[in-house]
Amino acid sequence: MTSLNRETRHLEEAGSQLISDAFKAGADAAEVCGSYGSKSKISLEKQDYHLAASDEGYQFGIRVLKGQRQGFASTNSLNSKELKEVANRAVEIATFSPENPYFSIQSVAESSSAPTLALWDPTLALTSLQTQKEWIEHLRKEILKDKRIRLNEGSLEVGKSLSLVVNSKGTHQLESETYCAWSLMAMAADSETLTSFDYFSNIARQSARLGDHIVQTTARFREALLKNLKTGTATSYKGKVVFSPRAVLDILIEPLCYHLNGRVILEGSSRWNLQTLGEQVLSPLINLKDTAWLADRFSCGTFDREGTPTQNLQMIEAGVLGKIFLDHYSAKGLHQTSTGHASGGSSSLPSVGPHTLLVAPGATPFSELMRQTNSNTGALLLVHRFSGQTDPVTGDFSGVAKGAEWWVNGEFQFCVKETLISGNVFECLSQSLLGLSAETSIVDSGSESPAALIDGISVTSG
Amino acid sequence: MKDLASRIQKALESAPCWMEARYHRRRSHSLQVQKGLVKQTKANLTSGLGIRCLVDGAWGFSSTSDLSAEGIQKAMRQAVDCAKSISQMKKSAVPALPPTTLSQGEFTLEGYETLEKMPLQQKLQAALRAESEIRTASKLIQTSTCVYSEQFEDKILITTDGAHALSRLARNEIRLSAIATDHGEMAEGQQTVGRTGAWDCLFTEHPMEEMGTTAAQLAVDLLKAPRIPGGLATLILSPAMVGLLSHEAIGHTVEADFVLSGSVAQGKLGHTVASPLVSLCDSGFLPQLPHAGGSLLVDDEGVPTQNTVIIENGILKSYLHNRESAAAFGVAPTGNARAWLYQDEPLIRMRNTYVQPGNQSLQEIIESTEEGYLVDCPLGGQADATGEFMFGAQKVMKIEKGKIKHMYRGATVSGQAFDVLRSVDAVSKEFHLDLGAGYCGKGQPAKVDAGGPYLRCQATIGGVQE
Fold first, then answer.
1. Residue B385: inside a domain, yes or no?
2. Of A54, A237, A398, which has the smallest distance from its Cβ to B62's Cβ?
3. Closest chain B CA to residue A77
4. Do A418 and B460 touch (CB under 8 A)?
5. Which distant-in-sequence residues (6+ apart) come within 8 Å of A326 by Cβ?
6. A276 & A412 share domain
7. What's the mean pLDDT in B141-165?
8. Do residues A399 and A387 make contact, with C-beta atoms less than 8 angstroms apart?
9. Which of A279, A416, B83, B219 is close enough to B178 for a disulfide, judged by CB 3.0 to 4.6 Å?
10. Residue A48 CB: number of other CB atoms within 10 A?
11. Are residues B215 and B285 in the same domain?
């Protein structure tokens, strides 16, 4: 459990007071989402140390119902008088807001299946500034091992936090976590070439072997940056492209989640609905799972923004739509049960979103995918990062393929510059999906995916 | 505010080093209406104090929501401890900040009280009407949404070297969205506007009803629009798109922190980087456009904001600076230091960025275009230190032999910033500052605005290949 006893007491007392004050002001039901956080951060800029910072604070958001009218207010104050004003403000807003039949505040039972997550490390919670300085020195030294690296910014943050969800229907959820998060934004330059900026972030919730972890992730990032120094010009074509795990998640899976969102389905803006459940909607190669139970990922926890227990869900299995993401609002509207996907923080109303998405690997080794060529160019583009626009409604995407690689016969040739790609998410995940790699990668301590070989992509060289 | 300012001033008298105290109170409201239902009505209040100090050549920062004398003293001590913790590790010490003109007094932008007095309920009723306008504009509209948000910012900025500024401003924005469907096809049209000022400022150029019907019509038109061919093309960018180009493609590369990191603008001061038709500025306050979305009179280091000429007739004249970078370049700070919340340290950010108008009319520019596209309705963008940029547009119209023809689906435009600016061969006299409800992201959000004239240039469209 937690050693944040005083902070837990403050959170619990403020939560109780907010609900009590809301009822005194005329609320019929109330829910409080509260959080406490304490962190210290050391940042780097322009190859050097830049700033050290510390912050500590609370945040409370109260959602109230008067009949089917809803109001919400939030504050970062622990002051009793200000908490009362916030509760009154939420009730006042509910008073003049029109009714919405889908609003609800519900009792949720504690999960019987959620595992005990290793989110709290007493050693990490007591990390000294000296240790933190040693960790960021590992980061700085490792990235600057090659003089061609230009470090724009980076940071290493150590923190501990508490999350509380409590409501007038008996829900009570509390969770604590420790973390160390590090990130870098850098480019590489030699006498003639300046690469694009690249970025990575990582998180750990346990202090064991953290120094090694920092060095390994930073070294991988540095080598990827240096690879971008070998540049060349692509040829425009329409055909096969390989999307890296990051590209699969950013370009294809993120907009897919829009259509899996229960609120979007409720409003009729998704291409799918409840009747589509059980139908083949994507290529049989696609298996997509969502989980909140991987402690080494950013989005992790045993309950969601409304206190509903999280669970492992098979969203899509062999291309068949299995589940959708639901919070209480969308679940009520669709006559379903929440799946524990209410997202958001203490200062925002619940919305719907995934936790950690896992795209299952395919059967083809990555090296074999890369041996594919397009007959019109004799080459194959490997897309890593995407700087562009995806219209989640239509699925059309168009943008710059940053640091994309030009391969011929399974051999890397150079990284391309000023090259745009365009296509459609649903075509990519259906008839145009030719294969998935057998290897997967975790992207920025979040979701995980294999690489994908996709046909029909337009590649425009600038 | 004045009592708190006195308390902070008194606390800073015991500062052992250069120190800056920034109190920030933000009240915000947000409404979301969709398909006739109110999905969200909320109020947020965040307030606290950020303390930044410079000790032995290193920056330290601490923030707190405890505004008691003890709380302020504790934050001051923590900031100093933070700075000391890295001062020995720094390879290059930050020199003492040179004296500069710092703001003293009260600075309020017009519209704060008017917006504050207008009841939230009245704004909600207007949002309901706006959403209804979209929904009823066409039978093909499947989903209609109106989102309104407003922020009231109260700040106190005091430094040990003389800044003492109390500032207030209000910002608001509205986003209207329509999703149309027809025979399995779907398309979205959006209209957004963001201003600094009262409610009415949002609708000075386009009434709310017109914005709603425009969003709906755009969604319907996009349903049957074909995908655009990819490749290098002649483009006439609308003022909003020019704003995006100014901000993303040029503005970021001339932020002095990016310049010092090696951006493409490094070493280019005094060089020709654009067509002589191009003059580019970034301004904290434009008297002729007082409600521009990124307006502010004092930055978050206490420096008065000003109109900074970045490019004059094609020649790069200035970078955008905070106090530290200005000292490094031996120039005066430009008032570009901005922090999102009290917990955030100030970073170099843009405000209202624009290309100055030219002499031709839009009609003349279209008529003199043999083949190209008119690009409008921005969807956001990104830029790189290399100057490579991309931005999205919802609406692209084909131009053939001097006449506007059919519409294409939205597309991405990309290029190398200075190459694109060098290709500019026509600049209109029509001028608008209307980036919309846009925020810039650079670790922290910042409300910005941007715009300019219509501008003809060459850039690459990320469309389809056959």
1. yes
2. A54
3. B65
4. yes
5. A262, A334, A336, A337, A338, A339, A341, A352
6. yes
7. 97
8. yes
9. B219
10. 17
11. no
pLDDT for A346 beyond 90: yes
Q: What angle do CA B418, B421, B427 make, to 5 degrees?
A: 165
Q: Give this prediction's pTM.
A: 0.93
Rounded CA gap, A393 and A43, in Å?
Answer: 38
Closest in A52, A194, A460 to B262, CB measured: A194
The 10s digit of each residue's pLDDT in B335-364 is 999 999 999 999 999 999 999 999 999 999
| Tens digits of residue pLDDT in B189-201 | 999 999 999 999 9
Cβ contact (<8 Å) for A58 and B258? no
Helix segments in A300-341, DSSP class H:
328-334
What pLDDT sits at residue A196? 85
B316: in domain: yes
B362 lies in a domain? yes
Cα separation, B390 vs B417, in Å, equals 10
For the ranges A162-166, A332-336, B87-91, B351-355, which has the lowest average pLDDT? Answer: B87-91
Tokens standing for B302?
């206490």
Show the DSSP H helices in A97-174 as ranges: 122-125, 129-143
Residues of B in contact with A268 (CB under 8 A): 35, 142-143
Query: Chain B residue closest to A89 (CA)?
Result: B43
Q: Which residue of chain A comes nearest to B419, CA vs CA?
A: A462
Last residue of a domain, one of A182, A210, A226: A226
Render pLDDT for A236-277 as a digit per residue (tens, 0 to 9).
999 999 999 999 999 999 999 999 999 999 999 899 999 999
Query: What span, in angstroms and rounded, lies between the C-alpha atoms of B191 and A420?
Result: 26
User: CATH number of the domain that B93 lies in?
Assistant: 3.30.2290.10
Contact B84, B43 (CB under 8 A): no
Domain termination site, one of A203, A226, A249: A226
Domain assignment of residue B144, given as a range = 2-223
Query: Residue A111 above 80 pLDDT?
Result: no
Residues A243 and A201 in one domain: no
As given in the structure block, the two tokens for residue A122 are 């007493």
In sequence order, what E strands does B15-85 have?
Answer: 18-34, 37-55, 58-64
Chain A residues with beta carbon closer than 8 angstroms to that of B412 = 388-389, 398-400, 420, 422
Residue A147 clears pLDDT 80, i.e. is over it: yes
Are B277 and B136 found together in one domain?
no
- HSE-CB of A430 using CA atoms within 13 angstroms: 12
